[in-house]
Amino acid sequence: MAKDMTLLWGSGSAPCWRVMIALEEKNLQGYNHKLLSFDKMEHKSQEVLDINPRGQLPSFKHGDNIVNESYAACFYLESQFKSQGNRLIPDSPAEQALTYQRMFEGLALYEKVGGVIYYEYYVPEEERHDSALKRNKEALVTELKLWEGYLKKLGSGSFVAGKTFSLADVTVFPTVAVLFQFGLSAERYPVLGEYYALLKDRPSIKASWPPHWLENTKGQDTLKEI
Questions:
Q1: DSSP state of 126
Q2: What pLDDT is recorded for position 198?
Q3: pLDDT at residue 114 above 80?
Q4: Average pLDDT over the chain, rounded to whole?
Q5: CATH code of the region 93-215
Q6: Structural fold of domain 5-80
Q7: 6 forms bridges with which residues in the sheet?
Q8: Could you state, in order of their start, the residue ranges of all structural domains in the chain?
Q9: Residue 198, SS3?
Q10: Which residues form a coiled coil (predicted)?
Q11: Residue 129 DSSP code
Q12: What's phi and psi for 184, nearest 5 deg?
């Protein structure tokens, strides 16, 4: 089955990582994959555009089925391979509701993180303003406090939507990992730090860890003052 799958991906991209974790969790190792460089603009290559007209990564194909949006790909993999590997959507209505809620709130977290760490990448120099970056940082702090509260309410050792690893963790953990890779303080955000420590050695996550992070274990300090 996995041999019918192709994933074009970029190292350190949270959306790409979501799909890779889902593939690992569903025991779909052995899929075709190709690491592309954002710096070399390979995500705009014809190879990508043939699958994904938006010229974005991930670009994912299973047989003739193309599912490029990372959340859609994760839902697709869980739906098509429900009985294989680990179940990622709980049956309980309460747990399922919280899983979906945290998954989609995770998009807000990802957006707030990007507004700070990728500010200079996306905003042309002549359009940058210290006041705008300050607002983005304040919005990120507010968002981080929200997630600290969510995890604290669930109790020590919890996953993001309860006591069971779920699709919410598949989609949210990569963003949390990006936070700490870019210097977020685990002392300032201890509950998020505990969550990160709980999951970083999970087999599916370890197997799909961004390769360039392994080369730069110190990470960056963009968020050290947040």
A1: G
A2: 97
A3: yes
A4: 94
A5: 1.20.1050.10
A6: Glutaredoxin (3.40.30)
A7: 32, 61
A8: 5-80, 93-215
A9: helix
A10: none
A11: -
A12: -60, 140
